[in-house]
């Protein structure tokens, strides 16, 4: 929770705006979808976006080769399907173009460069008070009856505190700043994190002739993206209509074993909890393999255990092994920033 004084923040606001409808925080896919549905019902609203564009995470913090991991029918927004000529797994550019078209179709015009500093419900007035600040220092307080939080789970990058990282000396970047493996050709790169981003970035680095080591500190579910020509997500959703979650998990893991084989011998340990239950209980998303596993099998991507410490040009692993490296790429995920600005008694976001 934020530690600032609420009264001081609101009292210093230079301008107040009454919104005769909801205030939506975030102009990503969720915020646009809510806006479109409200628009169709003739309900006024305001979308506040801290960046200068819609879907800023997709536009500014994703790598070039990124595609949707799920088929397009599971990712399209309400009342506006993807163009028919789009492939089953649209590219980053195609998805951004789709979102731009969506905003244009429903005449959605977010208030850009408005970073929410504080949102608090006034119990006396029974209204939400939302304070924003723009890059030029202009402060605005929006007052409304309803607040929609649509900032997603990936607002802020997570940078782990690893011993010696500051003394490493080489390039250290987070996955949100990674675009392509082209500039890493011929270099020794350690990728920290074996989720979907870590796996795909490792694949991209390998395809650009980087000597890639992938740090897999904890267990991870790696699943094929498709089974029997169908998306594994689609198959799971279909089975869950009739079967309990634990049984769907078992079926998915059996099918995965037949398709991918035993991946533990490559250093990728599976969790004891099934992939769907793990997502439900701990929020951990399984990795959908799009080619990295083949590189791991052929040892073109080297899977290594957790990191003990960094030193100048070197990383020491928990098993005592030391690797000389040129660069570190942190695929260590993101977190929500909502608990820092949403002032409620209990905030479990």
UniProtKB/TrEMBL annotation:
PANTHER family per UniProt: FLAVIN-BINDING MONOOXYGENASE-LIKE PROTEIN (AFU_ORTHOLOGUE AFUA_4G09220), FLAVIN-CONTAINING MONOOXYGENASE
Coiled coil segments of this chain: none
Cofactor needs: FAD
UniProt pathway: Plant hormone metabolism; auxin biosynthesis
A UniProt-annotated Pfam family: FMO-like
Organism: Solanum lycopersicum (Tomato)
One Gene Ontology MF term: N,N-dimethylaniline monooxygenase activity
Keywords: Auxin biosynthesis, FAD, Flavoprotein, Membrane, Monooxygenase, NADP, Oxidoreductase, Transmembrane, Transmembrane helix
GO biological process, one term: auxin biosynthetic process
The keyword NADP is annotated on this UniProt entry: yes
Family in the record: Belongs to the FMO family.
EC numbers on record: 1.-.-.-
Catalytic activity: indole-3-pyruvate + NADPH + O2 + H(+) = (indol-3-yl)acetate + CO2 + NADP(+) + H2O
Lineage: Eukaryota, Viridiplantae, Streptophyta, Embryophyta, Tracheophyta
Bilayer-spanning residue ranges: 242-260
Name of this protein: Flavin-containing monooxygenase
Domain of life: Eukaryota
